[in-house]
Amino acid sequence: MSELLTGDLYAFESLLAGEERATLLRVREFLAEKVVPIANECWVRAEFPVDLVKEYAELGIAGLAYPECPGPKPSGLLSGFLALEMARADPSMATFFGVHTGLAMGSIAACGSAAQRERWLPGMSRMERIGAFALTEPAGGSDVSGGMRTTARREGEEWVLDGAKRWIGNGTFADLIVVWARDVADGHVKGFVVERGTPGFTATKIENKMALRTVQNADITLSGCRVPEENRLRNAGSFRDTARILRRTRSGVAWQAVGIMLAAYEIALRYAREREQFGRPIAKFQLVQDLLVRMLGNATACLGMVVRLAQLQDEDVFRDEHSALAKAYCTSRMREVVGWARELLAGNGIILDYDIARFVADAEAIYSYEGTREINTLIVGRAVTGMSAFV
């Protein structure tokens, strides 16, 4: 199996305990054998490798963090490194996994009743039922907390959902979609689990994307969609509950950004050693080494940040501003790193065959989702000043 990551100069990975490190290496080997070889083809075709879901399930890592699911509970550090590894192999597959295990399962774990958790989480941990998370709307992204237009109206033992959602990862094929809607009676945002095939629910694949093309993002329409009361998440009574889920998943996005940085650095380093100009490998040129060290510096600084974030999570003392700062900072540095890697590869950097072009494109989506840099900056700014600058 592989040794420490090429770009892990300070050996942060060695902080993992024996069993957890073995799990990480097993996942790394799977990704290298099954995901990396097909990543570009799936990206070009904008097709999701459905056949791989069963093999992902056999890894036994989906839902490990939740008590209702079997297996030893992982540290935050292992969960982070798993997100890093998946993004290092393919950001699209990392996004698929993060939506299912973090956003969808996380919503049920945090906001569902004990009966609801027992009903849905074990099957989702076996990946027998895939989840999606429907929050963003066509006219509402950053302001969705106050501007949510999707409504929920109670009629007896059912809720009627009306509205639209956009950019819903896994939305075209998910079995369970956590839909957030505003209750017309009290004005509060509530969560509902909508099962695939429910009348009034339609999902249409978003075409012509330039990033995360393998991810099956959907436009979702809810038209008189009736959901039983038993599918209303019992502990989701306001947008504050939604924000609790985003706090944890934003940290996962920061780990993904580090994975993308390390992938870009490794691609650039390998290319620099092999590519010859003026009779010698370009790795021997000072300006090339400068680019490589800049990439490594960004990745190392961000890896240190997310490792500490994982420790704060394990100590149960991490706050919104911790994950917001990591998401904003790491994704900003990620953009720099993929740009430098593309620069180092010159013309070859825009050809998919050399891999870096896919990471450059996918980085744009990672930079934007789970809260833009500006929104996460305002979360941190509010925490450090004690004053809100939100409109």
Attribute tags:
two-stranded antiparallel sheet; seven-stranded mixed sheet; Butyryl-CoA Dehydrogenase, subunit A, domain 3; 52% helix; 391 residues; 3 domains; alpha+beta
Radius of gyration: 21 Å
Uncertain stretches:
none
Distance between the termini: 51 Å
Q: What is the CATH architecture annotation of the largest domain?
A: Up-down Bundle
Largest sheet: 7 strands, mixed
CATH class designation of the largest domain: Mainly Alpha
Give, in order, the helices and strands: HHHHHEHEEEEEEHEEHHHH
What percent of the residues sit in helical stretches (DSSP H or I)?
A: 40-55%
Q: Please state the average pLDDT score.
A: 94
Oligomer kind: single chain
- By secondary-structure content and strand pairing, the structural class works out as alpha+beta
- Strand content bin: 5-15%
CATH fold name of the largest domain, please? Answer: Butyryl-CoA Dehydrogenase, subunit A, domain 3
CATH homologous superfamily label of the largest domain: Butyryl-CoA Dehydrogenase, subunit A, domain 3
Number of domains: 3
Query: Which shape, going by the Cα principal axes?
Result: globular
The number of helices is 11
SS elements, strand count: 9
Secondary structure layout plus pairing:
Elements: H1 18-45, H2 52-58, H3 76-89, H4 91-111, H5 114-125, E1 131-134, H6 144-147, E2 151-155, E3 158-168, E4 176-183, E5 189-195, E6 201-205, E7 218-228, H7 239-274, E8 276-277, E9 280-281, H8 286-314, H9 320-345, H10 356-368, H11 373-385
Question: Can you walk me through this structure?
Answer:
The protein contains eleven helices and nine strands. It is α+β, with helices and mostly antiparallel strands. The strands form two sheets. Strands 1, 2, 3, 4, 5, 6 and 7 form a seven-stranded mixed sheet that branches. The chain is globular, with a radius of gyration of 21 Å. The chain has three domains: 12-125, Butyryl-Coa Dehydrogenase, subunit A, domain 1 (Orthogonal Bundle); 131-231, Butyryl-CoA Dehydrogenase, subunit A, domain 2 (Beta Barrel); 239-385, Up-down Bundle (Butyryl-CoA Dehydrogenase, subunit A, domain 3), CATH 1.20.140.10. A hairpin with a 5-residue loop joins strand 4 (176-183) and strand 5. It has helices at 18-45, 52-58, 76-89, 91-111, 114-125, 144-147, 239-274, 286-314, 320-345, 356-368, 373-385, and strands spanning 131-134, 151-155, 158-168, 176-183, 189-195, 201-205, 218-228, 276-277, 280-281. Residues 244-384 form the Acyl-CoA dehydrogenase/oxidase C-terminal domain. Keywords: FAD, Flavoprotein, Oxidoreductase. Its cofactor is FAD. This is Glutaryl-CoA dehydrogenase.
